[in-house]
Description:
Chain A: InterPro entries: Centrosome-WD_assoc, Quino_amine_DH_bsu, WD40/YVTN_repeat-like_dom_sf, WD40_rpt. By secondary structure, chain A is mainly beta. The two termini of chain A are 14 Å apart. Mean pLDDT of chain B is 69; it is low at 1-46, 289-321, 479-529 and 543-588.
Amino acid sequence: MNFSEVFKQSNQLCKVSPNGKYLATCVQYRLVVRDVSTLQILQLYTCLDQISHMEWSSDSLFVLCAMYKRGLVQVWSLEQPDWHCKIDEGSIGLVSSRWSPDGRHILNTTEFHLRVTVWSLRTKAVSYIKYPKACQKGIDFSRDGCYLALAERRDCKDYISVFVCDDWHLLRHFETETQDLAGLEWSPNGCVLAVWDSCLEYKVLLYSLDGRLLSTYSAYEWSLGVKTVSWSPSSQFLAIGSYDEKVRILNHITWRKIVQFEHPATIDNTKATVYKEVERRPAVPSDELLLHNITMGSTLFNTQSKYEICELPVQIPLVKPEPDRANPKIGVSVLAFSSDSRYLATKNDNMATAVWVWDVQKMSLEAVLEQTSAVRCFQWDPQHPRLALCTGNSKLYLWSPGGCVSVQVPAEGGFQVQSLMWHCSGNSLILLGKEQLCLCYMETEQEEQ
Amino acid sequence: MSEQWTTETSMDNDEISRISHVTMSPSRQNNLTSVYSFPLSKSSYNIISAFCTEDNVSHCIIYISQELDSLGLATCIEASSPGGAGLNAVPALNAMYELLQIHRRTMCTLEELEKEHLKNLSSLQHMQMTNSRLKDQLELSIREKSRLHETERQLQLKIKTLQSCLKTEKDEVQKLQNIVASRASQYSHDAKRKEREAAKLKERLSQLLVDRKDKKLAIDMLNCLGRSDGKRSLWRNAKATASHEGEMYKSLLCGYEASQKALVLENAELKKVLQQMKKEMIHILSPRKPSAIGATADEEQVDSDGEEKTGNSSRETLDQSCEHAREQLINSIRQEWRKLKSHVEKLDNQASQAQTQMECNKEMIPLETHEDEMERMRSEVQQCKEFIHAQQQLLQQQFNTSFDDETAALLNGCYTLEEKERLKEEWRLFEEQKRNFEKERKNFTEAAIRLGREKRAFEEDRAAWLKNHFLNMTPFADRRRWCSSDGQSALSIKSEPDVRMSAVKTPKAKSSTYATFSTPKPSRSATAPSTADLYRTLRLIPESRHSSRGSWQESSPVEDGETRVKSKRVLRCDDLSIFTFGEDDGLT
Lengths: 449, 588
């Protein structure tokens, strides 16, 4: 495992182009595009204000930089550095900006969710979509880029509009059986749209592309409901994480629950492996070394850690949520299927230090990673069943079916990993600190040979 | 005489009644017995009767005869001699003998009665105790009952209050639910109202913003871009919308087709698996049952038929409609399952039979284990016995040593009252047995002593008689010889029942001592050595016995005790003779 040198970044804005060739980072006003393999700067663009959002177009030719405070969007072309495009939303404001899947349109959501403006870079044409709903995930493009599902709110009722992305033709518009729609998500094959209600009611609805209601699922009533929903990449399973600290998995044929994964505080499942991160402070060095270290400004205060396999049963540290606060810190808030749909990683909010990995094939708990501090972010390798996670310290943690490893990021000045993302090839990881980033290269088989 | 006896016994009874308080030395008991025996032998010679003198012999005879008559005995004691003062010796002696017999009988009955009385007393005491205990228990239980009644009453009260509470709570809940419902409706209403307002505001805002927005484009772009796929953009018209619909349905159809294909594939896979499973099952199951040939053959036939059928059906199913295929599949699976179940049941039966056979065999086999088990149990029994023995010893010790508060407390702690009672009962039984033994031993002792005495007396008598005979060869000599010979015979007769009587007499004293003394040791040490000694002297027991006895008692007080007893006995003997004398006085 190798690490690159550290680069500056701001607002954790750092994206790899969809084709995997370029790395775009934002540093205050500037947008820097580098070659991923050499990390040499290819282009450098200067925006009008501090960039608050940045996104690659699907063809990896353009980069969108949004400045929400100014209501501005600037688009840069990689092939034609002279080409420029500036979209000004003016006084109506801007809260969100994104590319359409074709890379020729930009969808801007105005303040107060008054409307969604669709700007065409082909014709300079502008179209508006009214009544978008302000919710957890009110807008989603299908994986193939053909359709856009948009949650709307009119007359105190929830509607969904399905647009054809090609020409923004409204394909379907239907009312949903929700009290307060919280989110929607296309299945990876683009045939089914999962819609869930707000946390006040456990309700998941499944709509076909043509607006037919395929199924409704509700696990319980009178309690806080769905927290998050995630499709498996194979579209076979729909995982629903809820406030009752359980994950329920629905199948794609009957849309009934096949299994439910619980997150007990005491793990006594003998089939599961519990990895516990154990910290070890390095031996106190002598004075000379200490001086040396201080001058070097190195990792004196960094502790080493390793994983130990715990004897069952294991008690996972619990944090009791405050019952009189809104959005209690309890329940499964993050769900992620591995790229091969074989594993599911979950995080229960009142067990912030633990990541649970479930085997979807065996429908059982595979492993639990108990960290010393709260887990910030985890992501599956897009190519292999490999999970990377970070906890806001200077270490990177990796889990694979073979085992678990903790790696110290050897950057100077205490690089604290706040977030991470995989390169689409699965060969490298981009680690984001507060103001820095660095690349972590996995050892490929060729290198080993 | 009889009156005298009755007084004696009454005194004795008094003593018995005071058993629990008075300690009675065994020597005194001995003396008591000697009271009854000695006067008969001695008084006839040594004491001058005040009742009968030379002058009133005839009167006496008459009086005696009358008395005897009144007692219903033969009364021919008057001599037919003309002197009138003669005594017909034979009937007189007979009468005397009979009187003695009567006396002895009465004594026996008396003893028995006394014993009975004692027993009754003790049982009475026991009854009283049990009665008092039962009373206590009754009182306790009554109290318990009243307590329980009270608690029940309280509980019922509690239940009532709780029920009322429940009712109020239910009402409360109902009220709260109503409130919640009303609040919810109100909230939703408010929310809707607010949302409408917000929507209106949004509308207004957008209108304002849009209206104010000038016509100039907000997009500033160097040049327009072409499509990413290089195609030209299409006109937006009805054809386009239709094509969109078509596209959508196409994609939907594609999705369904893909899923159906996947399902069909899966189905085929599953069928294959089923087929394989079936084959393997047949393969596994059929060779394992060579015993049930006919049935198996049939079954196999059926199996193969089924297989063929299902095989055909599975081949067909791909062509046939899904519904039909499913039905057939389910049918075949059910059939298979039934077959498998019946087969497994059969196997189970066989297995159970085999097991029973095995068990039968097993019963023959484990002689060794059986023996081992027996040995183990024996050792366990032995252990238990030892344990019980140790416990008994401990108990004995505790009973022997005086009860101080501590031990009592300990006992209370250790045993329940009932157990203690039971043990006491057992102890009493044991004591009684012991007493019996002591009694017998005592009898022997007494008999031996008496024999010795009598022998001595006899010797003396003989010496006296010889002296008399030798010194005064008087015409009286004849008569004297008569008397002496009579006395001798009487003595010889008397010795036996006397022994019996004393045998009855002694245990009483003993029992009293045991009942009163918690520690029987000192009394035993006082009596036992003498008996042992006597046995030894009488050669009733061998020498070795004495040595073994020695372990029971301290050696020095033994001798002392013996001598003391002897001297005391002599003293008492005199006392009693005087006493009898007094009694006679009283009679006359």
